[in-house]
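for the writeup, i need someone to sanity check this before i put it in the appendix. the sequnce is what the collaborator sent (i think, or maybe the updated version? ugh). structure was predicted straight from it, no edits. if anything looks off just tell me and ill rerun, i have time this weekend
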Amino acid sequence: MKTVVIIGGMQSDTFKKLGAKRGVKVEHHNGKTGGGRVETAFRKLVNKADVIILLEGALKHQSMWVVREMAEKLGKKINYHSGFGGTGALDKAIEMLQ
């Protein structure tokens, strides 16, 4: 089963339920790091990901840049979703997986 990582927003349960309906595992992080090491907060998720979706406007810029850099170094597919909704983000992820 492919893993989609969504970073940003607050609706973890919704993302996971929508992912299960589409046959993918969803890992979610709200994008907040609490002032800790940003790299540490995202490293495991980025390593697990087949596809990463960043919710623009729903996470800190620092988090976005760190995840983007990690994804590029590891050759992970990454994209941005301008809305906050799970359906659009997952549709984009499924498209990327095909």
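The CA atoms of residues 3 and 88 lie 16 Å apart. The mean pLDDT is 91.
thx in advance!!
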